[in-house]
Amino acid sequence: MLDDLSLSVRRGEFVTLIGPSGCGKTTLLRLAAGLLEPDAGQVALFGAPIADAAARKQIGLVPQTPALLPWRSVLDNVLLPLQVNRSARNANQADPVELLTTLGLGDALHRKPHELSGGMQQRVAIARAFVFDPPVLLMDEPFAAVDELTREALRHELLNIWQASNKTVLFVTHSVAEAVSLSDRVVVMSATTHGVQRELDIPLPRPRGDLVETTAGFLELERELRLELRAGATAA
Length: 236
Description:
By secondary structure, this protein is an alpha/beta fold. The chain contains eight helices and eight strands.
């Protein structure tokens, strides 16, 4: 449930939603994807109703689980959106093989999902979302099911691809480090009001390398975000 929530995301901005379970993060993401309709108010993309944007294939979604088709190879899973949505093809779409190679899957193009680790499967899901070049990506805790070392590697791979693509991203996570390392802005959701508790700008310079999380600026922002989350939990 969400109540009296207003949120705007600028073109090319990476915005992360964070907060305790039940605060409405995934609900907000589903509203943004057009999978749910609001009881009141509206959701718009580039000034048009979200249903129109979804019909034009302007939104890519990366779910918590990769949802790969087990009988298709890695490459064929990534090609699926282009085969299903022929009208969504455009001159700027990524080369699937190049994209998979960038994600470290160049040697796994013809393997089936059951032959891949959890981290490799999630890389395929990321490639699938990027391949038809939607201007907006919605990502619902895409790294939640992998170990911490793999999670750290995945977020830096995502950051590298995003920094080269200039897409607008709305990202859901429970990880404070992930929120700070990826985002231009972090939106802290409240479990008590089911709205926005605070918006925290992340002024770390871009591009951000894999050592950004060791810098003093990162550690101070991480501390500030943790304190904000703790304050919200205390208020609840």
